[in-house]
Amino acid sequence: MSTTEIGCYTARQPRKGNRTRDVIAANFGTFFEWFDLLVYAMFAITISKLFFPQGDPQSALLFSLMTFASSFLIRPVGAVVLGIMADKVGRRTTLSFAAMLMLAGTVLIAVSPTYDVIGVWAPVILVTGRLLQGFSVGGEFGTANSYLTEQSASRKAFFASLQFSASGLAVLAASLFAYCLNHFLTQDQINSWGWRVPFLFGCLIGPVGLYIRSKIEETADFEQVKRTGATVQNPLAETFKSHKRFVLIGAVVAAAGVVASFLNLYMPTFAINNLGLTKDDAFIASICSGVVCTIVPMIGGITADRLGTVKVMRTALILGVILVFPLFQMLTRSPSLLTLAVFQCTLSLVFYSFYYAPIGSLLSQLFPTSCRTTGVSIAYVIAQTFFGGITPLVVGFMVKATGSVMAPAYYIVIIAAFALIGLYASRKHVT
């Protein structure tokens, strides 16, 4: 079986088997991860009222957003532990273990009593659930990305983009849940039990994902490394010894996509609190964004395979920077369902589908098979930790400090400038 070297990437034809099943299984955890993340973000205001003391409503919301961010603080640990596990034990086993942890965290959140029932233990249980989810997510992306990009030698960007289509489907599903609950239930019903419904849905589909993942085959790349004894004793040490430059490049490049994606994620809360839009408007706009995020990333992946990953990502990033200020001005001057939907769909189209979706291909090519998952996980989780979970907090702080709802646009532009430097540095190592 032939191999070809593309930078650090060893490209091989995958073993024969049920590729469709394996790809679905790899992406199931991504859907599960983003669905739970989005549901929490969309019900952040409700959760803040139920799980934290209500002396100051704004402080309660801040505590809720801090809980949202807490799962990101544990992600580096998950990235290291699960990344090493995937590079030493295998991608298949690690994917199943990550899904199990995610399910456990979701169950805790779904069944946890509120502050009025058990007092301070309510936020403790909530944070524990978020930490379990965060640990799982820390290693989920890198492991699933390695598994998907090792499925094909010539279509790495397309297979990598499927993770982002799965995330887009999660946006769509979470938004539909939020819209239906807010449309058909009263606020008292939502506060009483309605907010738990999407989490309980996650509890129901979790075991299905575990079963599907238990049936997948290991990748041919990893099996060859293991068969030839090319695995490294300590993937973490090897990553920082031989590939630390690529960790930094990967993190910087990923940061722009992370910030844009999480800003899009935060937009329902932002629109309700700062622009005076209704919950229905915010959720309908997110549904529209979810449709774009489900379909278009695959087009972005196909385009990147044909024209070049770095070229497509660079073009999308520059276009996004050009559009971000007019989009914010349009939204803040004339806030409505239409302008919010246009804002979110454009952000999803440019930043998410053509910049962020092919990034898995870029990251996988920066690291060899023996430490690929560890390297990808660490690079990605650095971007997620420092720019993902804190984005809602940074946006909220910037708006409050400057008094301008345009402030988040400057944040995106600053991060994008560093990402362009990272893309330039990666161009010789990525097709």
From TrEMBL:
Swiss-Prot/TrEMBL keywords: Cell membrane, Membrane, Symport, Transmembrane, Transmembrane helix, Transport
PROSITE patterns in alphabetical order: MFS (PS50850), SUGAR_TRANSPORT_1 (PS00216)
Localization, UniProt: Cell membrane
Membrane association type: Multi-pass membrane protein
First-listed, main subcellular location of the protein, grouped into a coarse class: membrane
One GO cellular component term noted in the UniProt record for this chain: plasma membrane
Keyword check for RNA-binding: no
Residue ranges of the TM segments: 23-48, 60-82, 94-112, 118-137, 158-181, 193-212, 246-267, 282-300, 312-331, 337-357, 378-399, 405-425
Any one GO MF annotation of this record: symporter activity
Domain Major facilitator superfamily (MFS) profile per the UniProt entry, residue ranges: 22-431
Family statement drawn from the similarity comment of this UniProt entry: Belongs to the major facilitator superfamily. Metabolite:H+ Symporter (MHS) family (TC 2.A.1.6) family.
Protein name (Swiss-Prot/TrEMBL): MFS transporter
